[in-house]
Structures are given as C-alpha cells and as structure tokens.
Amino acid sequence: MVLESQTSIQLPILDISQPLLSSSFSSLAEACKEWGFFHITNHGISKDLYDKIRLLSEHVFGLPSETKTKLGPFSSAKTYTPQYIASPFFESLRVSGPDFNGSAQSSADVLFDQHNSEFRYNSTAAYLMLFYV
C-alpha cells in the first residue's frame, strides 16, 4: 500500500528588494533553525550570471576526484569536502576568510590548469558566488 502525503511544503522566502526590518531577522533565524535554508528573492542576480555560475559549478564538481582531493581534508588548503564525509547527499567546496578572494584564487589555481583559462580566470565574483548559490 502506498501512502500519499497531503502536506504542502512552503520554503521560507526572504525578499531582499527592501531593507530588512528587525522583524525579518527573527523569521530568518526561525527559517534557519527549522529548515536549515531559505529562498532569497529579488536579489538582482541576472539569469545570465546565474547560468554562468551554474556552468562553472557543474565544471568544478565534474572534475576528476583526484583533482578535487588536492584541496581535500588532508591537503594544506582543506577547502574541498568529498561526498559522504560531511553529507551523503553532496560534496562541497568553500572559501575561507578573511581573504575570500585569495582563498578562491588559491583553489582555482589548484583546480584549473593553465590550458583551461576560461574557467581558471573567470571573475572572482562568479567564483565566490559558486559557493553561495
């Protein structure tokens, strides 16, 4: 027998077209506690930029495991986390502060060889956004 759920899931939405009110922070905190994430609207990221970031993301995470693990937990960079280490559902790549640009560039230098300049020298903003989109 198959049971069907009648529950409709509505993700918490954060509209950033207007300045955030203090009341927004409590609902944002609640969304983070209850859901762990939320949907941001009116962020100003164009479809074109989103598509470029998505392509970059697919390229980065499509690299061979041997390449990505050069940034893994046992490397000096420690910016790549393989699937099943932190989550059975995804792998991750992060940038570290306080020099986020330098961190992103260091990872790019390891991941992209000299012959792949389209991705290696993609804008730092797009590279950084890869981790937040």
TrEMBL record:
Domain Non-haem dioxygenase N-terminal: 11-80
Superkingdom to which the source organism belongs: Eukaryota
Pfam families in UniProt: DIOX_N
Annotated keywords: Iron, Metal-binding
Name the UniProt record assigns to this protein: 2-oxoglutarate (2OG) and Fe(II)-dependent oxygenase superfamily protein
Listed GO MF terms: metal ion binding
